[in-house]
Design a protein that fits this description.
The chain is an alpha+beta fold. It has 31 helices and 21 strands. Helix 8 (about 210-225) runs antiparallel to helix 23 (about 600-610) and helix 9 (about 225-235) crosses helix 20. Pfam families: DUF6729.
Length: about 800
Amino acid sequence: MSKALFRWTAQGHPELDFSRVDRLWWYPPQVPFQITNVPQPEHYFGSPLLLWMPRKLWKVKLVCPHSDCHKELLTSAGIHQRIRQVISLEITYFVASEYLFCKRCKRKVISWSHDIVSQLDVGHRVQFPCILTSKLACDLRVVTLMRQRGLGNSSSQIRRKLQESHSEVWLKKTVQYLTDCISLAMAVKRSLINPVTFSPPPPMPTVPKHRWLMQVYAQDVLQRLTEIKAAVTSIYGRILKMDSTKKVARKLAGRSFGTATWATNVGNEHGQVIMSVHTASEGFGLGPMVEGLIKRYAVAGVPPPEVLYVDRDCCGNTLLRRMFRKWKDLNIRLDIWHFMRRFSVGCTTDSHQLYASFMSRLSRCLFMWDEEDLTALKIAKRSELAGNLINPTEADVLKSISRSELALHCRRTTRGSQETLALIRNLIQAFDGDNGRDTLGVPLINSARMSEIMASQAKHVACIQDPPGIQLYTRTGTILKGEHRLPTYRCARGSTSLESFHLHLNRFIPGTLASDVFFQAYLLDGLARWNEDRAVAATTDDQQPCSYNHLLRHAANSLSGEVLGKEIVPYTEPRKYTGELLGVEYLYHQTGKILQDYRKAVEESETTDLEIEERFHEPEDCEDITVPTLEPDSVGPDNIEGYGAVQELASFLVGFRDRNLVVTEDEVNHIISLWQSLSDYDKCKTVYSKRHQAHLKQGRFRATKKIVAPGVESTRRCFIGAHSPAQWPDCNRLVEALFVRLCALYPNAVRCEGKKISRFTMVVRMYKTIRECIVSNARIMSETTIQLPEVNAATVTQW
């Protein structure tokens, strides 16, 4: 490659021969099959070179990117002296580039800069294969691996995969080099010539740390920011759903920490998210978001949506209805699942043996299956059973139909207000009193509470009915079942699909904390990819190019339209970005702050937060000065270090044994500081052994909340505690240290108001006071993972 690309000057220095530059990629020569000379390591460990000279190779006109030059044409100014190393999937290669000179401002620009690459047309732009940072560069194939956010796709795992692939390639080259060395050494030995000395192979290039990969991923998102925003804000829907969650906002760190409480999302009937904002509170703070949605529909000329499903503020002249007053024909409906959950509060506990049956029959009181669809499914299942040499009865056919088959092939409709009210009253009456008791005699229904719920929720029965004349089901395809072809449907009713999205939304943000700028980048890229997946699932089941690059897909369609006269990719180009605020931008608009420039934030992070390239060859086991050093005497009874920090936190918590749920702000800060000094072992949540499994573990009506009636759960715990082994092996070290101190304070029985109280009763009483102080403080529970489980005197006595 050096002979073909370089020439020697009169002074004996190599220089680039521009007359021979006729391609982008230059590869090292192949190792000869017959070794006649001493093998040199550089022949085996050579790396490809990308010579990026767009003006020289393609004769394109490039203008100065500086605003004060008024698009002055750039001229060539030789080759840039610096060569960049690029981290690829299996190897590292190098990039060289040309200098471009502006005659007006007398400044030089490197042709690999983003301002120059973005001036090229799509066909030439996509040939630049990497993203550059301050010192290194990353191949786009590595970046593609990080774009799919979710479980099992962390930057640490991708870094380990890169380390493994780079190591295998380096080992293969090393084995090939050493094999040729041995072959030549044996030949020399047989010819009785003096032995030959061989050079050792070069060390394997170091793979950067995972944090550098995250910086590259953020850089990639920020370069496509306008395109991503346009992909999110150009989506519409006929049936909308709106819901909020607190999980995602907890990951905001830095100057945004604690400013956001809710993440509100608006979805459509296809499962796409058309708006996602972060707010400090629900309700009035969503006004600008609603105005932006109304404006988006009006500017695009799209008819307003027909239905909006919510979990609150549905009936009457609510604040939400006043926000959407410009959409006069919009039906605001209550999500039926939230309606059912309100009735579950009238049950004594969701662990009751009849709880699942009650909730399942409550669903039947609200819905009825379409007779035509149900008949077609029965016929198909009967034919399917008959094909297995079975003469099925009606009962056999009904038993063979699963819930998933019903939901896939049969549509449901609501029964109407009057019939629904009558059925709910009959259901409550059927499970009330002695009819709803379990084997221990515990009733399912709390009669007084259920009466209040029935009186307050009766007005919402009309709100959960299907809007007349609005199609809530979409036919997605057909399935052959028992020689009968059945249609498949997708239901747009309710906000359940949007609530399931919250789990994925939380995974869009890697780790547990992220600054506002990178939080915004992760969120927008995740939303764009999520919407693209939902769009593909809603339109076709056929195989098509799985690419989220809107620029490439649009260019392919435009060029094929000009050349072939037709489009080759089923794709609808997103409209122009409408300027609506998304994510953290909406939060700062509310608070009057300004979200700093994305590109500037990435550059600052590269120079301050990320020091990988400055200490690129630092060993993996280097000391981190930010982690406190454990003292030799901090080993606990279980021979695990960090017990001293546990003792300090336990000593401070003992001081709350006489409190009345009052914790000052300084005490909260001190508790959080002591918790942060704990080791990772003590910060992890304790997994307790299974004691009682009387409640439903799976299914739609599984136990999700503990709705406890006075005396019910305490009776069960005492009963189980008397017949089960001690629970102490499951407790964390903090609880153990806390009880050690409380038991030392009460070595004997105590007399209180003339009564003798056992020491264990006093210990449990003080422990409960401490637990209530901690659990009732929202900030402690949100910023720490302190676990103080419920215990009773019997448990402490066993311990």
